[in-house]
Write a structure and sequence with these properties.
Blueprint: E1 14-17, E2 21-25, E3 46-51, E4 56-61, E5 69-74, E6 81-85, E7 94-100, E8 106-112, E9 119-127, E10 139-140, E11 165-166, E12 172-176, E13 187-193, E14 197-205, E15 209-218, E16 223-231, E17 238-245, E18 248-256, E19 270-277, H1 299-309, H2 331-343
Parallel strand pairs: 1-3, 10-12, 11-13
Antiparallel strand pairs: 2-9, 3-8, 4-7, 4-9, 5-6, 5-8, 12-19, 13-18, 14-17, 14-19, 15-16, 15-18
């Protein structure tokens, strides 16, 4: 049998730097470590000593390799895993790790899915990360980050009965999410377009997440139409989705990605998103008169406003219960709601 490769062990890795591509072959390699993804815990492996030239986000690209690869980065031999990827470009791997520090040595393990071996190539690169910079104000999502309590506020089709938040043109939502490997927080926000328009959602997520535009037809049967699909990656928190839509009722879906690292409450669990439309977000008071978004102006709108002022936003679809714009949500807003119903 051929001898093991020179970088067969973590203690004798091949030096690696940004902008370079390195060939490798695990056919005669042995096991010297463990893997946290891709069933690679007992797969033969080779090692690289990677020193990024930039503080921010590092990317390890194995696309074009000749077998089903797995790549994982550690903070040192026998240290903590900083990220692991199995399949990204087909059966080959690409891993992005945010938070690397220029000049620091990182241990990179290359192996295969379920003991597979073969030859391939790996390219290293790093770049400065885009900072997470939320706006100074917005509508705080009325749901605590708690993986142990069922979400009945805005879990959409993942709750029984389905529950939704709301978002309106010009509104910014300040939300949170979690993903513990078995349970994931999903946030669903309904909105209505009174006329054909182009709708755009832009924002940032501290965690790797997905942002989908949906039209829910029927939750029990899973009839959901996608009109936009987007998200962010490990190297940038930014995301944006946009689509030209006919008048109707729609939903924005935001959640951590199953493929992203786990997200703990209180640790990198925040996101923000703002809705805009091509027609702009006007300030006509009658735009918020239909506070329950049922298409009619009547006493049910006044009732929805009163419930929202008292903290129950179940039937309230506007950005804020402060309808009169005085900075407070109280009985004066209920009176204003009644005035709007009679005026508009």
């Amino acid at each position: 049998a051929p001898p093991p490769p020179a970088n067969d062990n973590c203690g004798s890795p091949e030096p690696a730097a940004d902008g370079n591509t390195y060939a490798f072959d695990t056919s005669s390699a042995t096991l010297d470590g463990t893997g946290s993804c891709g069933a690679s815990g007992t797969s033969p492996d080779v090692w690289f000593d990677y020193v990024p030239s930039n503080t921010g986000c590092a990317t390890l690209d194995l696309c074009g390799s000749g077998y089903d690869t797995v790549v994982e980065m550690f903070d040192g031999c026998g240290g903590a895993s900083l990220g692991c990827n199995d399949d990204f470009c087909g059966l080959q791997s690409t891993l992005s790790v945010n938070g690397v520090v220029a000049g620091t040595h990182y241990a990179v393990r290359v192996s295969g899915f379920a003991n597979q071996v073969g030859s391939g190539q790996i390219t290293f690169s790093s770049a400065a990360s885009t900072p997470y910079s939320p706006p100074g104000s917005g509508t705080v999502e009325p749901e605590p980050c708690d993986p142990f309590t069922p979400d009945v506020i805005n879990a959409g089709c993942n709750s029984t009965p389905p529950s939704y938040g709301s978002i309106a043109c010009g509104e910014t939502i300040l939300g949170t999410g979690f993903w513990n490997g078995s349970l994931r927080d999903t946030d669903w926000f309904n909105f209505t377009l009174a006329a054909d328009d182009t709708v755009t959602f832009t924002g940032q997520m501290m965690f790797g997440g997905v942002a989908y535009g949906l039209q829910v037809v029927d939750c029990p049967t899973g009839q959901i139409n996608f009109w936009a699909i987007g998200g962010n990656g490990a190297c940038s928190p930014d995301f944006s989705i946009s689509a030209a839509l006919p008048a109707g009722d729609y939903t924005l879906f935001i959640a951590p990605s199953f493929a992203a690292p786990l997200v703990d409450c209180g640790v990198n669990d925040q996101y923000w998103v703002t809705m805009t439309t091509g027609a702009g977000c006007g300030g006509n008071p009658c735009d918020v008169a239909d506070t329950n978004c049922d298409g009619a102006l009547n006493g049910f709108d006044v009732q929805a406003t009163e419930e929202a002022v008292n903290g129950d936003f179940t039937n309230f679809c506007q950005p804020s219960a402060d309808l009169n714009g005085d900075g407070a949500e109280n009985g004066f807003d209920v009176e204003w709601s009644e005035a709007l119903v009679n005026m508009c």
